[in-house]
Amino acid sequence: MWSLPFFALAYAGLSQAWLPASGKIRGVNLGSQFVVERWMANDEWNKMGCGGTQSEFDCVSKLGQAQANEAFATHWSTWTTKDDIAKMQSYGINTVRIPVGYWMREDLVFSDSEHFPQGGLKYLEQICGWASDAGLYIIIDLHGAPGAQVAGNANTGQDAPSPGFYVDWQYERAYKFLEWMTSIIQNKANTAYRNVGMLEIVNEPLRGSNSQTDSMRRDYYPTAWKRIRAAEDALHISQNSRLHIQMMNTKWGSGNPHQYLPDDRFAAYDDHRYLKWSNNNGINTAGIGKTPAAYLKQSCIDDRAGDWPTVVGEFSLSVADDLENSDPAFAPPGDHVDWYRQWFAAQIQAYEKQNGWIFWSWKADFIGGRNDWRWSYQAAVDAGAIPRNLNDAINSNPCAGV
Questions:
Q1: Quick one: which of 89, 170, 262, 385 could link to 146 by a disulfide (CB 3.0–4.6 Å)?
Q2: Tell me, what's the pLDDT at 9?
Q3: What is the DSSP letter of 180?
Q4: What secondary structure letter does DSSP report for 163?
Q5: Are 140 and 156 a contacting pair, CB within 8 Å?
Q6: CA distances (Å), 43 to each of 32, 116, 239, in order?
Q7: pLDDT at 368
Q8: CB 295 within 8 A of CB 285
Q9: CA Rg, the chain, in Å?
Q10: H helices within 79-157, ranges in order?
Q11: d(CA 256, CA 333)
Q12: How wide is the angle at C-alpha 400 spanned by C-alphas 395 and 402, nearest 5°?
C-alpha cells in the first residue's frame, strides 16, 4: 500500500526530499505559537495584555481587533525564533508539529460574532521556512476547529460553552481551511513549505460513542480526506507526492478513525499519551501506583500499537496533578532529575516501537505559578532531564531491572 517510506517529504521529486535517517519521528510541538494556551504561557499572556481572559477569542474581544493584532504579531515573531529551530536541530530533533486554528484563513471568520487575531499566516510561512532550511519534517495540525471541537478548552482558541463543531456547516468551514492549507503547502513555487508532509484534520475531538463522534467519523473524516485530495488533484500533485492526512487514533476514544475513509493511502494516526491522566495498571491509584516505579514500569511495558502508522504526537514529563508539586518522590523536579531522565528515555523508546514521538512542548513559561521544565523540552535539556544528544536516551537501558 505504501509505495514511499512513511515520512518521505511530500515533494519526493525534489533534491531536498527528506526522510529521518532513523526512520522515526523525533519531534517537538510548537505549543502556544499560533494557538496560545494560557496555562502554559501565563507570563506571555499577561505581557500581551490578555490577562483575565481564557482564550484567544476572549483576548481579542477584550483588546479590540487592532490592538490584538499588534499584540499577537509581537508574540508570533518572538515565541519561536530561528535560533530555536537551530537549537532543535542541534539536539537531534527532526520534526516540528505546528498547531494552528481555522481562523488563520481569515475569510472563514464570522466578523460579527467571532474574534480572532489576524495576520498569522506570514509567521507560519516564516517558521516553516526556517524548519525546512534546517531539514526538519513539518506537521501542521488543525488544533482549533470551527465552533470548537470540545467545550471550555483554550486549546481550541475559544472558551466555548459547548462543542459546536459537529454540524455540516462547521465541517464545511473546516474543509475550506484544509483545502486552502493544502494548496499553500503543495504550491511548489513557495519553498517555505517544502518539508510539510502531514496535515492533521482535527486535534483531540470529543471522545465516546455518540452522535457527534459518529458524525465526525462518518461525515467529516471521509469528506475532509476527499477535499484534500481534490485540492491536490487540482494542482496535479502525483500520487507519491501527496500529503499524509492524520487523524487521532482509535486509542484516543472517538472510535475507529479509518472506518469510513475512501482509502487509507498516506493516512496517519496521532496518539496522545499523557500518563498523568491515565490509570493503566493503577499507576495513579493510591496503594498501587502514584510512585516513580509505577510510572516507569508503565512506560517500559507501554504498547501503543493499533492504527498504523502512529506517531505519539503529544506527551510530557508531567505526573498527576496531586503528585507533581506536593509528593516528595516527584517534587520539586530539580531534586529528581535522574529519574525524569530515565523516564524520558523509557517513554521515547516505547513510542519508537511505533513511528516516533513529539514532545509537548518546545517552550512554556509560568505554569501554575512556576516555571516547569516537565512541559518544556528546551528547559528540560537545560535541567539535564533530557540529554542534549538524543542518542544518549535512545541507546540507554532505562528499563533494566524494572
A1: 170
A2: 40
A3: H
A4: -
A5: no
A6: 12, 20, 45
A7: 87
A8: no
A9: 20
A10: 82-90, 121-133
A11: 38
A12: 135
Determine the pLDDT at residue 369.
86
Annotation says 314 is catalytic: yes
Pairing status of strand 25-29 against strand 95-101: parallel
Given the C-alpha cell 503528585, which residue does it identify? 323
- Omega before 332 within 30 of 0, i.e. cis: yes
DSSP string, 307-320: SSSEEEEE--S---
44, 56, 200, 204: the catalytic one is 204
The answer for residues whose C-beta is within 8 angstroms of residue 66's C-beta and 6 or more apart is none
**CA distances, 113 to each of 60, 102, 147, 168, 375 (Å):** 12, 15, 11, 19, 34
Rounded distance, CA 284 to CA 155, Å? 25
Contact 29, 314 (CB under 8 A): yes
Whole-angstrom distance, CA of residue 127 vs CA of residue 81? 8
Q: Mean pLDDT per segment of 10 residues, for the chain of length 402 residues?
A: 38 37 88 97 97 98 98 98 98 97 98 97 98 96 98 97 98 98 96 96 97 98 98 95 96 97 95 96 94 98 96 98 95 97 98 97 92 96 97 97 89
Mapped onto helix, strand or coil, the DSSP state of residue 357 is: strand
Residue type, 81: T
Given 37, 179, 200, 314, the catalytic residue: 314
